[in-house]
Design a protein that fits this description.
Layout: E1 4-9, E2 30-31, E3 35-36, H1 39-47, E4 52-57, H2 62-71, E5 81-86, H3 100-106, H4 108-111, E6 118-123, E7 126-128, H5 132-141, E8 146-153, H6 155-158, E9 162-166, E10 172-177, H7 181-186, H8 198-203, E11 206-216, H9 217-226, H10 233-242, E12 247-251, E13 256-258, H11 262-271, E14 300-302, E15 305-307, E16 310-311, E17 316-318, E18 321-323, E19 326-327, E20 332-333, E21 338-344, H12 353-361, E22 368-369, E23 374-380, E24 385-386, E25 391-392, E26 401-403, E27 408-411, E28 414-417, E29 422-423
Parallel strand pairs: 1-4, 1-6, 4-5, 8-12, 14-17, 15-18, 16-19, 17-20, 18-21, 19-21, 21-23, 22-24, 23-25, 23-28, 24-29
Antiparallel strand pairs: 2-3, 6-11, 7-13, 8-11, 9-10, 26-27, 27-28
């Protein structure tokens, strides 16, 4: 794997994950109480012995830079790095990244300096665990120019992905990016070719791209330089390359979830609390998910009732009920609270006891969840201040709302409390 260079596409403005991306790049969005989205592909690379990793991004990259520099410091004995490449103006281009392929094209001059045989192109907003060395070996064994990671897909989700048809040897014959209506029906295939049972094939009659690719180094360079107007891999470059290059499919049969929307992100986080065994688990000694070590103290629970939940380090919970929820680092919850079906991202720092008392005395709201508050089906972003006797329950059953002036949004019926916002005492949402 020394001849492989990984390029993680950090995405654009992250509009589908807004407002979680209001103050941070999409790959820097917190995950599972202590990780960030970027930790998933980076950890997969490290576990696959791929140590040369670039992350391409162009929006709010400060926190992403900070996280990567603190989390991934390879020793001097290994030629390895994890480095953010942000969009920039150059004599060749004064534009922002115009798409996934254009992002790679704008830094091609840097990538070409490495003596490598393959480029591994990854996405920064998927939850899965994959050994990329097997992916790359399949690419080499079939002498492919391009290999695309694929998963079987049901009809409900299929139109959100690039879909393809392939022959019995795994060569891709047709590729359609996010087809709708009649175009979607045309892409139905017999997925028993992938090893699915007849019943599974009926439920998942499509072959979807995971948005991860392996390119022979000379093939990627040639395609990007020969077709400068092609700005996106899925929409333009891959469909064009299929007709002229050996493009193969690599079936991934493990858990994989695209968490690029608020609803998908919320569901994926809460699914981690499933028992006896969630579909994706962070508890794998052979393939751990790495992140920044913070040296926080153990969490403290004082007379609490906690069921089907995950609790990060350094939390302080008092006389409360927590059910089917994920609590991030440094979360504080006061007495009498009821938290259910909720993701709380925690805080970046602790308030001292004196600061908390001062806030309360001045009738301000300290960081954390105030006493006697009820929260249901909510995402609470970092450093939020939720007052006492608050009800976050989406009382009116609203599906979509923009109340940023009051510190929250509603997305797919899920309340999203903004980072650093304050919800006053007695508020009902």
């Amino acid at each position: 794997m020394k001849k492989v260079l990984a390029i993680i596409l950090g995405g654009g403005a992250g509009t589908r994950l807004y407002p979680l991306t209001k103050l941070r790049a999409k790959p820097a969005v917190p995950l599972a109480g202590k990780y960030r989205l970027i930790d998933i592909p980076v950890s997969n690379c490290i576990n696959s012995e791929i140590y040369k990793i670039y992350v391409l991004t162009q929006f709010n990259s400060a926190s992403l830079n900070r996280h990567l520099s603190r989390a991934y410091d390879f020793s001097g004995f290994r030629e390895g790095f994890v480095e953010v490449l942000a969009a920039q103006q150059t004599p060749q281009s004064s534009n922002w990244f115009q798409g996934t392929a254009d992002a790679v094209r704008q830094y091609l001059w840097l990538f070409k300096e490495w003596d490598i045989s393959e480029y591994l192109i990854l996405s920064g907003d998927h939850l899965y665990r994959m050994n990329y060395s097997e992916f790359i070996q399949r690419h080499r064994d079939t002498n492919a120019d391009i290999t695309i990671g694929v998963v079987p897909m049901d009809e409900k989700q299929a139109s959100a992905f690039g879909l393809m048809k392939m022959d019995s040897a795994g060569r891709i014959l047709n590729f359609s990016e996010k087809p709708k209506g009649e175009a979607l029906q045309v892409m139905r295939v017999d997925t028993t070719l992938l090893g699915l049972t007849p019943e599974e094939a009926r439920q998942k009659p499509y072959i979807a791209s995971m948005g991860i690719y392996v390119f022979k180094s000379e093939v990627l360079v040639d395609l990007l330089e020969k077709f400068p107007a092609q700005t996106d891999f899925g929409k333009e470059l891959i469909p064009k390359a299929i007709t002229t290059h050996n493009t193969q499919a690599y079936l991934f049969d493990g858990y994989w979830e695209d968490i690029g929307t608020i609803e998908a992100f919320y569901n994926a986080n809460l699914a981690l609390t499933k028992h006896p065994q969630p579909e994706f688990s962070f508890y794998d000694e052979k393939a751990p998910i790495y992140t920044r070590g913070r040296l926080l103290p153990p969490s403290q629970l004082q007379n609490c009732q906690v069921t089907d939940s995950m609790i990060g380090e350094g939390c302080i919970l008092k006389d409360c009920q927590i059910s089917h929820s994920v609590l991030g680092i440094r979360t504080r919850i006061e007495a009498g609270c009821s938290i259910q079906d909720t993701l709380i991202m925690g805080a970046d720092y602790y308030q001292s006891y004196a600061e908390q008392r001062s806030d309360l005395d001045l009738k301000s709201v300290p960081i954390g969840i105030g006493a006697n508050t009820t929260i249901r089906r909510t995402i609470v972003d970092k450093n939020a201040r939720i007052g006492r006797n608050v009800q976050l329950i989406n009382k009116e059953q609203i599906e979509e709302a923009d109340q940023s002036d009051q510190g929250f949004y509603i997305r797919s019926g899920i309340i999203v409390i903004l980072k650093n916002s304050t919800i006053p005492n007695e508020t009902v949402i």
